[in-house]
Design a protein that fits this description.
The protein is an alpha+beta fold and 407 residues long. Among the domains are: 106 residues, NusA, N-terminal domain (N Utilization Substance Protein A, Chain:P, domain 4), CATH 3.30.1480; 61 residues, Nucleic acid-binding proteins (OB fold (Dihydrolipoamide Acetyltransferase, E2P), Beta Barrel), CATH 2.40.50.140; 75 residues, 2-Layer Sandwich (GMP Synthetase, Chain A, domain 3), CATH 3.30.300.20. Helix content is 41%, strand content 28%.
Length: 407
């Protein structure tokens, strides 16, 4: 096609502008496709190159002869007479294909490296395996493993999610998001708390049981800014926004501390801790609380203690004052009737025997333990007394015989 083709160039330029693709990129893709189309023609050269004049749109095909090392030793114009028709058909296919490839690359580049960001999508489809979120230009995949138990994702619902992975596929980027990742809580607080987005307040640690409860430890780089107050907001407005997005998940905001003892005490809130004993060799923290604070420190099914352990990085062993006194008195190794500590209607800790019977308060339980220990000591003393008493009649009999002899 030796004649100029300004209409072709104008159309190419318009497509390039609309799709955000450079004209040179489209011309290179078209030239490569035309080489493949030329080689399918009969009597075509084994090696060829196609040139497209960017000013006139003129397309020429040059056959080439190469030596053993791949250098061009001869080149000639081998443009077919009807190559213009072939070029027009090929151009349409190549341009559309290249546009799709570039759009896929642009979408991937937009989300590549965004792992850890938060996105907002609309639920498009959901089943037992995954849920699809429409992010606008692309769709995000929310696998079942990244879904919060008992959360329902109804069609058309607007949802925020945390990007955990961006994969490049032949059909475009595949974005995997999560609703269970602790990072989701951090990003939601960044959206609601300006002090976090500006760096004045930092979230130093986070522990989460999705759908139930989350603990975050916050730190302020400005001594005049209260990190907990900044995150909670006036009358709890800021933390309430995060809780609503997480559909009622409870969030505890505690102050971070470099002192592990203070951090552990804060992490076990709302329970009040009396004492913390650290064992650096085992990484265990023994926490002592008042008897009536034991269940609060442990939490429902141990949830409060588990989250505190994850937040602080210490293995936490919680004991009541009564349990500690028993251990220090040497009563911990004794056998006791089976049972469990429960909270009665008044909110007090009581010991409920497994075999039934009346529940004991912490004070009654401690008194019973002391009485049991005293009873055991009495039995031992009684056995020793019996041995002494057995010997006394023998001594009296010997004394009697001696008296008779003297008489």
């Amino acid at each position: 096609m030796s004649t100029t083709n300004f209409e072709f160039l104008d159309a190419l330029g318009q497509i390039a502008r609309d799709k955000g693709i450079s004209v040179d990129t489209l011309l290179d893709a078209l030239a490569n496709a035309l080489v493949a189309a030329y080689k399918r023609l009969p009597d075509s050269a084994e090696e060829a190159v196609v040139t497209i004049d960017p000013d006139s749109g003129e397309i020429r095909v040059y056959g080439q002869e190469l030596d053993i090392e791949g250098n061009v030793v001869r080149e000639w114009d081998d443009t077919p007479e009807d190559f213009g028709r072939i070029a027009a058909q090929t151009a349409k296919q190549v341009i559309m294909q290249r546009i799709r490839e570039v759009e896929r690359d642009m979408k991937y580049d937009e989300y590549a490296g965004r792992e850890g960001d938060i996105v907002t999508g609309i639920v498009q489809q959901t089943d037992n395996r995954y849920t699809l979120l429409d992010l606008g230009k692309v769709e995000a995949l929310l696998p079942q493993a990244e879904q919060v138990p008992y959360e329902r994702y109804d069609h058309g619902t607007r949802l925020k999610a945390y990007i955990v992975e961006v994969r490049k596929t032949t059909k475009g980027p595949q974005i995997v998001v999560s609703r269970t990742h602790p990072g989701l809580v951090k990003r939601l607080f960044e959206l609601e708390v300006p002090e976090i987005s500006t760096g004045v307040v930092e979230i130093r640690a986070a522990a989460r049981e999705p759908g139930h409860r989350t603990k975050i430890a916050v730190w302020s780089n400005d001594p005049h800014v209260d990190p907990v107050g900044a995150c909670v907001g006036a009358r709890g407005s800021r933390v309430r926004m995060v809780t609503n997005e997480l559909r009622g998940e409870r969030i505890d905001v505690i102050p971070y501390s470099d002192d592990p003892i203070e951090l552990i005490q804060n992490a076990l809130a709302p329970a009040r801790v009396r004492e913390v004993r650290l064992d650096d060799t085992t990484g265990t923290a023994t926490v002592i609380v008042n008897d009536y604070q034991l269940s609060l420190a442990i939490g429902k099914e141990g949830q409060n203690a588990r989250l505190a352990a994850r937040l602080t990085g210490w293995r936490i062993d919680i004991k009541s004052e009564t349990q500690l006194e028993e251990e220090e008195a040497g009563l911990d190794g004794q056998e006791w009737a089976e049972g469990e500590w429960i909270t009665d209607e008044d909110g007090n800790q009581v010991w409920k025997p497994a075999e039934g019977g009346e529940a004991l308060s912490a004070a009654e339980y401690a008194t019973a333990a002391v009485e049991e220990a005293a009873s055991a000591e009495t039995e031992v003393a009684s056995e020793e007394t019996v041995e002494v008493v057995v010997e006394e009649p023998v001594a009296e009999e010997a004394s009697g015989e001696a008296s008779e002899g003297e008489a």
